[in-house]
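Technical annex, item 7. During the second reporting period the consortium partners agreed on a shared format for inverse folding records so that results from different sites could be compared directly. Each record opens with the tokenized structure and is followed by the designed sequence. A conforming record, contributed by the partner at site C, is shown below for reference.
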């Protein structure tokens, strides 16, 4: 939502006012929902973990009730990096998510573990990594948006178009998560007494899923560009951008697919001696993702055009067809 609506706001007649509305609406909902989720999980930690049973349920509930306090910081960090991404800046995401967070985690946890500290040190390290990355994200955000401080954007009116776009998109993301695991769930359902089959398929699916990262990388980097061109009505430039992005996606997709297909036996051997004999599953799953890559950043382009409901319908039909075909087969 931020990637699309910030670009639209900058292209409007009142860019300052509309950007403040978008940022304020996103901040209120992101922080509000994360705080609500944190409180609910903290209060119901014992109930949630008890559903899984086991001798370690009490210890797991303690871990969950503490770790969940990192959720607001992580949500805030995501707000910062996506607000900056909406201006076409990818550097802050790399700094906050890929550098600061893991470095803080190691910097706090490793010395403590070396000194013989226990799980409390791991908790402190994890919380420090999340809140530290959120703090760095705040500093970067204020450098780019000095005029959009928290007090100003929190007082800004609600942006209803952002909400109407984001709620279907949130449900779409959930369905994407379900679709990515529907076949694994089906195998667990139909072959409950064959955990080794489930393990092999899950690992093969994970390896084949690496090729999706190519399109996802281009999606987030191209989203603000495409959204801005749509908002300005630059159809010829948009068509050129889409074709160029499609070529950029497809070329590395083919290269990475070749590496995974020919290296599947070797990669699967790392998980167990019996895994390589199922190497053929990997190219079959990659073939299923071929059309997704061949179509270019179609999903992202639809979202940047404001068609989140169409994307939701597409995911509903895809999930229904996937489950129905699995049941039929």
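Designed sequence (site C submission):
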């Amino acid at each position: 939502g931020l990637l699309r609506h910030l670009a639209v706001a900058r292209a409007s007649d009142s860019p300052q006012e509309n950007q403040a509305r978008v940022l304020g609406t996103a901040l209120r909902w992101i922080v509000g929902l994360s705080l609500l989720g944190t409180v609910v999980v903290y209060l119901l930690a014992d109930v949630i973990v008890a559903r899984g049973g086991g001798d370690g349920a009490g210890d797991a509930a303690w871990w969950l009730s503490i770790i969940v306090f990192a959720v607001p910081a992580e949500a805030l960090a995501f707000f910062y990096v996506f607000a900056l991404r909406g201006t076409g800046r990818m550097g802050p995401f790399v700094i906050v998510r890929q550098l600061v967070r893991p470095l803080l985690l190691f910097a706090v946890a490793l010395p403590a573990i070396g000194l013989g500290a226990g799980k409390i040190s791991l908790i402190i390290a994890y919380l420090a990594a999340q809140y530290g990355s959120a703090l760095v994200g705040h500093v970067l955000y204020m450098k780019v948006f000095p005029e959009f401080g928290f007090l100003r954007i929190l007082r800004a009116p609600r942006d209803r178009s952002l909400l109407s776009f984001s709620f279907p998109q949130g449900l779409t993301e959930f369905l994407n998560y379900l679709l990515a695991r529907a076949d694994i769930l089906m195998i667990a359902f139909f072959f409950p007494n064959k955990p080794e089959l489930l393990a092999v398929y899950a690992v093969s699916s994970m390896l084949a899923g690496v090729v999706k990262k190519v399109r996802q990388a281009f999606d987030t980097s191209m989203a603000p560009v495409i959204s801005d061109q749509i908002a300005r009505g630059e159809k010829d430039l948009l068509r050129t951008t889409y074709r160029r992005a499609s070529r950029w996606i497809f070329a590395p997709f083919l290269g990475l697919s070749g590496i995974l297909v020919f290296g599947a036996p070797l990669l699967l051997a790392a998980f167990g001696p019996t895994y390589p004999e199922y190497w053929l599953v990997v190219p079959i799953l990659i073939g299923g993702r071929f059309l997704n890559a061949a179509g270019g950043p179609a999903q992202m382009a639809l979202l940047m055009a404001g068609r989140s409901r169409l994307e939701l319908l597409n995911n509903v039909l895809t999930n229904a067809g996937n489950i129905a075909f699995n049941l039929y087969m």
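Residues 67 and 123 are 7 Å apart (CA to CA). The longest helix spans residues 235-269. All partners now use this format for quarterly exchanges.
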